Amino acid sequence: SEVGSQKERVVTEEEWLQKWEMGNIGFHKEQGHPLLQKYLDVLLNGRSGLRIFFPLCGKAVEMKWLADMGHSVVGVEVSEQAVKEFFSEHSLPYCEEPVPEISGAKMFQSTSGNISLYCCSIYDLSSSIVGKFDGVWDRGALVAVNPRDRQRYASLIISLVEKNSSYLLVTVSYDPNKHKGPPFYVPESEIKSLFG
């Protein structure tokens, strides 16, 4: 099939946490992603002061970059280590507080208030907790979620965005029979059926 043997593959939360603990984070880009710079105008569409969502954010340097431009950034990441590394690597002071609606979750917010990172499963979020967004930078989230969870993921993202929002998505193209993922192969046809 088009997605090869990946359909049933499951990567657990523990495995992701282990990747961070072991420093096995080849997906992290120290210099930021060149495609965000290239398509930034598509994401912002001439607008300023946007709320931008980073699903499965890790410690993406683009969060600071966009916040420095005057946007509000909200990320979600299961690894507390990744979140803390983000703040320390950018020398950003932050405060940490529990998220009452989500058992065990924490929210880390820069003292300037323009970067809020939720440490929990992305599926625990809802617009009643995080509000709605004008833009989404999905650099490694859709390709990282387990293939069987894609519909759930897409439905969540759709529920979190405003009507005139921009969704910037990076995927990878390869023969899924030769690589078990992640990143997983998401064919363009599936992206169209997920997001319409």
Automatic annotation (TrEMBL):
Known catalytic reactions: S-adenosyl-L-methionine + a thiopurine = S-adenosyl-L-homocysteine + a thiopurine S-methylether
Pfam families: TPMT
Record SUPFAM superfamilies: S-adenosyl-L-methionine-dependent methyltransferases (SSF53335)
Taxonomy, superkingdom: Eukaryota
Annotated keywords: Cytoplasm, Methyltransferase, S-adenosyl-L-methionine, Transferase
Chief site of localization: cytoplasm
InterPro entries reported for this sequence: SAM-dependent_MTases_sf (IPR029063), Thiopurine_S-MeTrfase (IPR025835), TPMT (IPR008854)
GO molecular function: thiopurine S-methyltransferase activity
GO cellular component assignments: cytoplasm
EC number, as in UniProt: 2.1.1.67
Compartments, record wording: Cytoplasm
Biological process according to GO: methylation
Family: Belongs to the class I-like SAM-binding methyltransferase superfamily. TPMT family.
Name recorded for this polypeptide: thiopurine S-methyltransferase
Organism: Grantiella picta
